[in-house]
Amino acid sequence: MHEPLTQGPQGEEQHGLLLAFFQAFSRGDLDTMARCYHPEISFGDPVFPELEGRERVIGMWRMLFAVGRDVQVTFRDVMASRHTGAAHWTATYRLPGSGRTVVNEVDAEFRFEDGLIVRHHDVFDFRRWCKMAYGVPAGVVLGWTPALRRQVRGRARGRLDEYLKSTSPAPG
Predict the structure, then answer these.
(1) Alpha-carbon distance 83 to 116, whole Å?
(2) What does the record give under GO molecular function (predicted)?
């Protein structure tokens, strides 16, 4: 049985943590976001199904803010209990290259450990995202296919790996 998500005293500290996380997210303050994550953070969404560790997860957010133009993040419905949390957030940005505007509506779920976010899972409508990202009819048709999902995931993971290599300090 899941404990109810509330903003009351049972999840007050966790609720404050999520508010700090989303306030930082909306400002593009990735250092503060990183401090909200547990060192063993696990992240997943339709594009990045499994990212493990603070370096990769924050690296993904850094990459998305670096390549997305005019990124705006808003949030609402932040709720938490001692062990779990949830929120709804919206990202609006222009894709590099095409200049297409994407408005991504995301439902997020969280788990907490040691006073930090240890699991962050985002859910959004991949087909809707494809339609905005690739336009009609390509995005509508391709958004339904497992092959496109695999392709988008593979490219995203490859871009993240390249980004992390390019931003990591050179070995001394």
Answers:
(1) 10
(2) isomerase activity
Tell me how far apart the alpha carbons of residues 30 and 59 are, in angstroms, rounded to a whole number.
9
CA distance 15 to 80: 5
Length of the chain (residues): 172
Task: Name the maximum alpha-carbon separation found in the chain.
Answer: 51
Per-residue pLDDT of the chain (172 residues; tens, 9 = 90+): 344 444 445 689 999 999 999 999 999 999 999 999 999 999 999 999 999 999 999 999 999 988 877 899 999 999 999 999 999 999 999 887 778 899 999 999 999 999 999 999 999 998 888 888 777 766 556 656 777 778 888 988 999 999 999 987 655 4
C-alpha distance across the termini of the chain, in Å: 51
Structural domains for the chain:
9-125 (3.10.450.50)
Please give the model's pTM, rounded to 2 decimal places: 0.86
